[in-house]
């Protein structure tokens, strides 16, 4: 299912205001998650996360625009890897998370009109820090870009 279809199902299941808000925004990136987690019942998970992604609409035939949109898209799902180690999701009310740094290296020309496989992993997630790596492949298996991101993760103490 598409990201929109998954959000619609989550709104039906939970009526959570965050899911409603996300649904109202629309999305500039269409992504498909072949192994989705249930944000209402997350389980600890270590390993690869995969997303298929592409631009949701037509982009101008300008390689800089395609690279910029891909750079934006690389932030989708990447931090999920380190918080999933701990059985958490973005919707956990006690979770504070932020990207500390984010880098991308382009190895090939980007054309985001077609789906690309975004393969992500978190080699470590401890001490309030997460480290995430990603690789983006074209449909024919070429490595298009590599990504690295460090994050800060904390649980708020209830007052």
Point out poorly predicted stretches.
Answer: none
**Residue-averaged pLDDT:** 84
- Please report the total strand number as a whole number: 6
Strand order of the largest sheet: 1-2-4-5-6-3
Question: Percent of residues in helical segments?
Answer: 10-25%
List the domain count as a whole number: 1
Distance N terminus to C terminus? Answer: 39 Å
Number of helix segments?
A: 4
CATH architect. name = Roll
- Within CATH, the superfamily carries the name Hotdog Thioesterase
Biggest pleated-sheet summary: 6 strands, antiparallel
User: Proportion of β residues?
Assistant: 35-45%
Give structural notes:
The chain is an alpha+beta fold and 159 residues long. 23% of the residues lie in helices and 35% in strands. It has helices at 3-14, 17-25, 63-73, 80-84, and strands spanning 29-32, 49-55, 95-106, 116-126, 129-137, 143-155. A hairpin with a 5-residue loop joins strand 5 and strand 6. The mean pLDDT is 84.
List the helices and strands and how they pair.
Elements: H1 3-14, H2 17-25, E1 29-32, E2 49-55, H3 63-73, H4 80-84, E3 95-106, E4 116-126, E5 129-137, E6 143-155
Antiparallel strand pairs: 1-2, 2-4, 3-6, 4-5, 5-6
Helix pairs in contact: 1-2
Could you give a quick summary of the protein structure above?
The relative contact order is 0.18. The mean pLDDT is 84.
């Amino acid at each position: 299912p598409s990201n929109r279809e998954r959000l619609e199902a989550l709104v039906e299941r939970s009526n959570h205001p965050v899911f409603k808000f996300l649904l109202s925004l629309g999305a500039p990136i269409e992504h498909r998650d072949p192994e989705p987690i249930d944000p209402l019942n997350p389980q600890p998970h270590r390993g690869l996360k995969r997303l298929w992604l592409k631009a949701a609409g037509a982009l101008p035939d300008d390689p800089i625009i395609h690279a910029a949109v891909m750079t934006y898209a690389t932030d989708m799902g990447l931090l999920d890897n380190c918080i999933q180690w701990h059985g958490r999701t973005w919707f956990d009310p006690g979770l504070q998370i932020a990207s500390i740094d984010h880098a991308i290296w382009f190895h090939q020309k980007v054309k985001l009109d077609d789906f690309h496989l975004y393969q992500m992993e978190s080699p470590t997630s401890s001490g309030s820090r997460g480290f995430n790596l990603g690789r983006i492949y074209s449909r024919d298996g070429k490595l298009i870009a590599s990504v690295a991101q460090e994050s800060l993760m904390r649980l708020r103490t209830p007052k």
